[in-house]
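fyi for ur records
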Amino acid sequence: MHPTRTASDLRRFIALPYRLHRNDPYWVPPLRMDMRKMLSRKKNPFFEHAEAEFFLATDRRGEVVGRIAAIHNRLHNEVHEDTAGFFGFFDSIHAQSSADALFDAAAAWLKERGLTEMRGPASFSTNDECGLLIDGFDFPPAVLTPYTPREYIDLVERAGFSKAKDLYLYQSVNDQLPARLVRGAKLIAERKKITLRSLNMKRFEEEVALIKKLYNSAWDRNWGFVPMTDAEIDHMAKDLKAIIVPDIIVFAECRGEPIGFAAAIPDLNVALKTNPSGRLFPGILKILWKARKITRVRIMMLGLIEQYRGSGADALMYHWIWEKGYALGYRWAEGGWILEDNTAMKNGLLRLGFEHYKTLRMFHRPL
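which gave:
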C-alpha cells in the first residue's frame, strides 16, 4: 500500500478499472485524458478548497489490485460545520484484505487531518459521481453516473461502513408527459407569469453566470450539498460545451426574472462504450461516429429557487425537455439523482411518468 508519487503511479491508478472491469458488459470506460485532468491538482479547481491523497494497493508481484482516494473537502465542512472526510475512486479485486487495506489507508490519512468520519464513495463530491450502486445492476450507467460491481457492496459493508443516504435514479421511455399534468402546470404558470426559454449559445458566458447564481440557491438545502465555486462551474461548462444541445437546457423566468433551470445532456456513455481502452487514438473516431446516433439523455439538473417550488415550473421544464428532445430524436431519459427523503421531487417524477430504476448508496463509518 502506498500513495501515488510519480507519473507512473498515477498512470497505474487510472489504468486499474480498465483491467478489472473490461469484461463487465455494463461498465463504461471514461477517456483516460479526462481522468488525468480530473485528478490533476493543477487543472481541477476542486483542489482550490480541498486536498486528496491517492493510494494504490499492490500484491507481492507489484501488480496493482486496488485503489482509493482519501478526500478532505474543506468547503463541505465549512458549509455543514462538519468534520467529515470522504473516500472516492474505489476499485479493488474481490478480496476483503485488499479492500480493508485501502479503507484503512484512507482512514489514517483523514484522521491525521482531524476528521472524525469517512463517507463515500464520492469522486470527488456530490457535485461529481457519487454513491455505490446497490440496485439496478442490469442497466448501463448514463453519463456522469457511477457504475460499480455488485461485489463492492460486501467489500464496503464488511469494512465497517453503514448506510448514510440513498440516492434514487429514475427513467422514462414515454414519448410525452401526462397531458392533464401539463395542462395544470401551464395554467399555474400563466397565472404566475412564468415563462421558459432555452440556453442561448451566443451568450454562453452570461448563461453560465446565470447558472452559477441559480445552482447554489436552488440546491442549498440538499443533504451533502456543496456549493460549486465560480471556477468549478466554469470548468464544468468548458468540459460540457462540446456536447451541449441548447434546446434541452431550459431556464424558467417569472416576469423576466430567472427562477430556475433544468439541464439535460446527451448520454455520451453510449459512444464511450465503443472505446474499451479509454485512449483518445484511435478511439475518438468510434466515439464521434457513435455520438451521432445517441437517443438517450440524462436530465442532470433541475432546480427552482425556494419560493417557486410547487409552482408547476418543474413540470413545465420537464415538458420542454421532452418536447424539444423528442423532436431531436431522443427516446429515453434518466432523471436524478434524487435524495431518498425528497418526497416532493420523487412524487413529482412519478406523476410525470418516470419510474425508480436504480439506487446509489452513500456509506459512512466513524474514524
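Residues 172-360 form a domain with the Aminopeptidase fold (CATH 3.40.630.30). thats all i got for now
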